[in-house]
Structures are given as C-alpha cells and as structure tokens.
Amino acid sequence: KQPFTLTTDTYSASFSANGLLTGLEIGETKMSVNIDFLQYTEDTSNEQNGGAYIFQPIGEGVPVKEAASHVRVESGPLCHYVTSKWSHFVHTVSLCNRTSSDSIVELGIASSVSMLSGPPSTDLAMRISSAVQSGKTFFTDLNGLQ
Predict the structure, then answer these.
(1) Which of 124, 95, 77, 112 is nearest to 31 (CA)?
(2) pLDDT band for position 132 (50/70/90)?
(3) Are strands 11-15 and 4-7 parallel, antiparallel or unpaired?
(4) Angle CA(71)–CA(72)–CA(78) in degrees, nearest 5?
(5) Ramachandran area for residue 142 (φ above 0: left; ψ -120 to 50: alpha; else beta)
(6) What is the pLDDT of residues 29-84, one digit of tens each?
(7) Are 109 and 13 in contact (CB under 8 A)?
(8) In Å, what is the CA distance from 91 to each residue of 7, 35, 46?
C-alpha cells in the first residue's frame, strides 16, 4: 500500500495508504488535512452507557493504530470515492463535481461503525485537523440536519 492522489481538472486530493484524506488542492488553494480515529473507553458506572447521543469517556482517547485491511477507489466523470475498511468501521471520502464542467467541488466524509464487532464498552471518534483559520467559530453538520 502506498499513498496516492486523485486528480481532475478541478481538484487534486491526496490520501494516505490507509485511504485517509491528507490534502486537498482546488485551483491555487492548497490545504493539508489529517484524519485519525480515536477509541475511548466508556464510563459504565452510570446507568446510561454511551451510545449515539451519549458520550461519557473515561480519560483521553487512544489512537487506532491498526491499518485498513482494504482500500477501494472508485472513479467516474463526476465523482471519486475512496473507501477504507478496518476491523469494526468503514470510512468513505467522496469528492464530486456537480457537473463535469463545474468548478464547484463537494467533499463528503462518512464513517460507518459496527458496535457489535468493536471492542466492548468503547466509543469511536473521528478527528479532522486542518489549517482552516475559523477562530472561535465551530462548524458542524448539525448531526445530518443541514
């Protein structure tokens, strides 16, 4: 497995050997990105264990060190998809132009987690680090309600 880059007339996206986005270049704008996953142990002393909307970790997250077992790249005239499979989650990055001649790029990042196959009493978090200077403004997708 080697790092790789997907390039179109509009953008260039760089990925690690595990299929995680490491950089994006659109026109003259270049952005370094670091995506990693952290595993947290749940606080099971409370009646409400962790879950989709309850995050009660004990201590700091531990980086997931395993490598993706499989990385798949799908390319078409409008979209590229990079899907990585780990033991208990799947991570997908999609890069799409709205039309083949459009300079607008849509970036989507999704992770599917199987709570049944992961370690018991743990939560998984995806951390995205970049050089975006957003000050005190925090951007979110409002849990998919955008």
Answers:
(1) 95
(2) confident
(3) antiparallel
(4) 135
(5) left
(6) 899 999 988 888 777 676 665 555 667 778 888 898 888 899 999 988 888 899 99
(7) no
(8) 20, 11, 30
- pTM flag (> 0.85): no
Which backbone phi and psi does 135 adopt, to 5 degrees?
60, -130
- Tokens (6 digits) for 30: 């270049």
Which residue from 7, 68, 15, 79 is spatially nearest to 37, judged by alpha carbons? 68
The whole-number average pLDDT for the span 124-134 is 83
Partners of 4 in the β-ladder = 15
**Encoding tokens for residue 48?**
């409400």
For the chain, the maximum distance between any two Cα atoms, rounded to a whole number of angstroms, is 56
Could you give the percent of the chain with pLDDT greater than 90? 20
Residues 6+ apart with CB under 8 A from 133: none
Q: Greater confidence, 114 or 87? A: 87
Q: Which residue has the tokens 């997931």?
A: 64
The residue to which tokens 């799409």 are assigned: 96
Tell me which residue of 75, 95, 71 sits closest to 83, measured CA to CA.
Answer: 71
Query: For 143, left (φ over 0), alpha (ψ -120 to 50), or beta?
Result: left
